[in-house]
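Quick log. Single chain, no ligands specified.
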Amino acid sequence: MRDGEFTLSYGSTVYTFGPADLPAIIASAPDLGSAGVRTDDVDRPRADGVAFGQDYRTGLTLTFDLLVVGADEAETWENLATLATAWRADSVRSDPGEVAELTYRLAGRERTVYGRPRRFAHNDELVHEGVISVLADLSTVDDQYYASTAQSRTVSIAPPAGGGLLAPLSAPLTTTATSDRSVVIAVGGALPAWPVITIEGPITNPVVDVVGLWRMELTATLAVDEAVTIDTRPWRRSVLRNVGGSLAGKFTRASARLSSAALPPGSHEIALRGTDGTGTAALTVEWRDTYSV
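-> predicted structure:
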C-alpha cells in the first residue's frame, strides 16, 4: 500500500481512497477516534470514595473528511455514487455480526480494523467545480489494531513408528495408536492475538494444545473430507464444521473458553493430538499480530 492509502473491503467489494490521484481524496488528517470506557464502579456505602470494578473498553469511531472529485459534474456524481454504495455495505449491515475490513498505511505502518461503515453525509455546493465534500464514519468492533496480513502455520499428525496390536490386549482390539505433533509459532505485536484454528480430518477426538497455556478437546469424529474451524475472534466466536453445523457443544468441560483463548506475544508450542490411522489429519493456526495503536 502507499502511504496515506485506505482500503475498505468486504465480500467482493474493495474500495480504495486517500491519495490525490484517486476519485476520493482525504482532505484532512483522519480522526482515528478514541475508546470509551464502561465501568462497574460503585460509590462506597457510608464512606468516601469509589469502589472500582472491572473496566471495559468500547470500539472506535473513525471519521474521514473526503473530497470526491471528477473531470466534470457528471463524473463527480458518478464517483460519489460509487463511494456511497461501498459505504452502505449492504451485505454487511444486513447480516448480524458481520464486519468489513478497513486496511490503511500511515507513516509506513500498515494496520487493519474491523467494523461497519456508518455516517455518510455529502455537500454538493462545489459540484460545478468537480468537487463534492463527504463526511464518513466507520465504527469498529473494538479498540485494537491488527496487522494488515495474517500469519499461519500448519502441523500434520502422523502415527508413531511401529503398529500392530496395542498391549495390554483387551476387547475391542485396536490397531490404531493415538498420535500428536506440534509446531512453534511466534506471535508479535503488543497485545494478545486471537487465533483461527482449522482441523482437517480424518481424526477422532481432536485436541488443540497450546502447551502450558490452554487446550481444547472435541468429542467428535471428522471424516477424511471434513474440517472444523475454531474461530476465537471476539466478533466471530464460533466452532463450525465445513459441511454445516456447530460443534461448540462437543467441547469437553476441561476445554478453554473461546473468550480465554488469546495468544500473548511470544513463542508458543501448538500441538495437534487425536486418533488418525491415515496420518493425514492436520491443524492450521492463523493469527494477526495485534497492537494498541
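The first helix runs from residue 73 to 88.
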